[in-house]
Amino acid sequence: MKDKDKTEEQLLKHILKEAIDILPLGITIRDIDGKIHYTNPAEAIMHGYKVEELMGKESKILGPREKWSSMTIEQLKKIGAWKRESLNKRKDGTTFPVQLISYVIKDEEGSPIGLVTSCEDITERKQAEEALQESEKKYRILVEESHDAIYIYRDNTFLFVNERFCEITGYNKEELYQMNMLELVYSLDGDVVREITGSKIEGEFSPKTHEARFLRKHGEIRYCEIAVNQITYRGEPAVMGAVRDITEYKEMEKELRRAEKLESLGILAGGIAHDFNNILTGIMGDIYLAKMELDPKSEAYKILEEAETASHGAKGLTQQLLTFSRGGAPIREKSSIPDLIKESVDFSLRGSNVRCEFSVPDTLWMLNVDKGQISQVINNIVINADQAMPEGGIIKVGAENIIIKEDDVLSLDEGRYVKITVEDKGIGISKEHLSKIFDPYFSTKQSGSGLGLATAYSIIEKHGGYITAESEVGVGSTFYVYLPALKEKLEEEEVERGEIIAREAKVLLMDDEEVIRKVVGRMLKRLGCEVEYASRGEEAIDKYKEALKSGDAFDVVIMDLTVPGYMGGKEAIGKFIKIDPEVKAIVSSGYSNDPVMANYKKYGFSGVVTKPYDTKELAQALQKVLKEKKEG
User: Fold this and answer.
1) At what angle are helices 615-631 and 247-292 packed, to 10 degrees?
2) How many angstroms separate the CA atoms of 241 and 228, rounded?
3) What is the DSSP string of 66-112?
4) Average pLDDT over residues 153-158
């Protein structure tokens, strides 16, 4: 019986050894001192040895001393088994990661006598884990640095939000993890968000992006675009969403629509102003001519003077319409600025509870400017100042002559300038907004177009000047405008009552409006001119040719810039120059947004007169052209 048991025991040991030998897992048996008593082929191959090379060796040959080697016998009794990861060493000295599971071998009395350890090479697993960690790191960086707000959401709870989501909503992550999505969304858009979130969780189809308004922590509304998709997060369905703040785009879209409306309104205003200027030219001309027939001391003369003053007021009104409609190149003329400043301020404060204190000396240097555009600049600044003081108050408007030197901090060429200052004691502008006030479409007012100061900046820049502002919230704002001054004094060509400055000049007047032809014709005759008329460019060319052939040529041609449906002065001037390279032509128009009016010489004209004009302005234009012709 004993022999049989011994045989069976030997057979069992043999079977166990064979089984262990064919295992892909490394197996090592060592005694309590660490000496290897057995190792299977997998263990040896894993470390680059043959089995016989390891037998009887210290286990430290396979790597750093194991944790168990420093344990006491009592600790080994208690532990019994443990699992850990380690770095083992191959025969060639290279190391590799392994997972070890060790069991304490005990004798019949329970005392530790050795250790059996399984060893698994986990190099591939570690590489996969490192690759995954690297991927997750890159993904996290991508998510955290994303311009879009990213969130993961499940069961009305945020599981993850990035920093951008915090920026858009105004909450920090700790606050958001205690909230649900509907607390962040404007109430009227709650159904949309609820529907898309629910449909994605259930795997239903919904449009890729949706628009919703988010409420920031302090109540500000932000327009956002949301894209959502279903994902598996930590083993369960969830929604991942990307939120893009499109508030600025929405504002720009709104401002573009507003700008389109303003452009349409500007075209309408320009058309109205053009027609009104034609009428006003006739009225002003007839008033002037009627005055010439009366005694200046008579009551009728005084009445006509009042009518003339009112007409000039109407002229200022049409000028406002034209500057609103154009914003083009300045039509410059030598100008005295004090009256322009005062008239513009008074116009802007009509009906206001704000009063203006002027400090504008008559000794200001002359300017070469587009008076309508500079008036528009002053209007825009003063209107802003007026609106900054809803309870009323005082606006201070001043002007002075200054000289800019080469080393001056202002971005201006050195030379003489007139500096205009507009100061209010209103609500002021924050530092954050002050740097943006001249940007197109920027406005801190709900009803503002954001074009007023941007237009002012553009106008001053085109005049070679500079505009800037300083402000303090609760204290007020001050705007500074610098305009280059003329070196010479303004020499106006005064036309006294009854004085004839263009005697015997032969003038061809072309205008499609009969009232203009009649009134301006009488004005020209009053100035001593011989006048012939044409209603369109084709007719004017024919008459000019005939006069040239007959030897009785015209001295000056006055042409309306545009004639609806027919040839206007803009097209006709080229044909006139072909007929007579020495032709002297004056361009006239109630529109002032055409580049011809600002650069008339470039197009072949010798002078310009803008409707509405009176006899004095017409005489000055004629005198200038006739003088050039005589000197030429």
Assistant:
1) 90
2) 4
3) PGGGGS-HHHHHHH-EEEEEEEEE-TTS-EEEEEEEEEEEE-TTS-E
4) 87
Measured CA distances, 399 to 201, 311, 405, 586 (Å): 69, 28, 19, 34
Give the pair of three-digit tokens for residue 274.
Answer: 């053009």
- Residue entry with tokens 């072309």: 510
Helix axes 371-387, 337-348, angle to 10 degrees: 40
CA distance 574 to 589: 18
Which helix H or strand E contains 578, and what residues bound it?
helix 569-579
pLDDT (tens digit per residue) in 430-453: 887 787 777 765 565 544 445 678
What pLDDT, on a 0 to 100 scale, did the predictor assign at position 33?
80
When comparing pLDDT for 523 and 325, which is higher? 523
Residue pLDDT, tens place only, 512-549: 888 889 889 988 988 889 999 999 999 999 999 999 99
**C-alpha to C-alpha distance for 361 and 142, rounded to whole angstroms:** 64
* Range(s) within the chain of domains with CATH label 3.30.565.10: 337-489
Give CATH 3.30.450.20 domain extents, the chain: 19-123, 146-245
Cα–Cα distance, 54 to 61 (Å, whole number): 8
628 DSSP 8-state letter: H
Q: Are strands 556-560 and 506-510 parallel, antiparallel or unpaired?
A: parallel
pLDDT above 90 covers a percentage of the chain that reads: 22
Helix (H) or strand (E) holding 45: helix 41-47
Q: Please give the CATH architecture assigned to the domain spanning 506-631.
A: 3-Layer(aba) Sandwich (3.40)
The closest alpha carbon to 593, from 325, 275, 261, 273, belongs to: 325
pLDDT of residue 446: 47
One-letter amino acid for residue 349 of the chain? L
- SS3 assignment, position 119: strand
19-123: which CATH topology? Beta-Lactamase (3.30.450)
Fold of 337-489: Heat Shock Protein 90 (3.30.565)
Query: Buried (b) or exposed (e) across 422-461, using 16+ Cβ within 10 A?
Result: bbbbbbbbeeeebeebbeebbbeeeeebbbbbbbbbbbbe
Q: What does the DSSP 8-state code read for residue 493?
A: -
What is the per-residue pLDDT across 256-300, written as a single tens digit (0 to 9) for each?
A: 776 666 566 666 666 676 677 777 787 887 887 788 778 888 888
> In this structure, which CATH number among 3.30.450.20, 3.20.110.20, 2.40.128.630, 3.40.50.300 belongs to the domain 146-245?
3.30.450.20
Q: Do the beta carbons of residue 441 and residue 450 sit within 8 Å?
A: yes
Q: What is the pTM of this model?
A: 0.48
Tokens of 407: 């080393």
Instruction: Choose between 518 and 202: higher pLDDT.
Output: 518
Residues with Cβ < 8 Å from 176, sequence gap 6 or more?
158, 161, 165, 166, 169
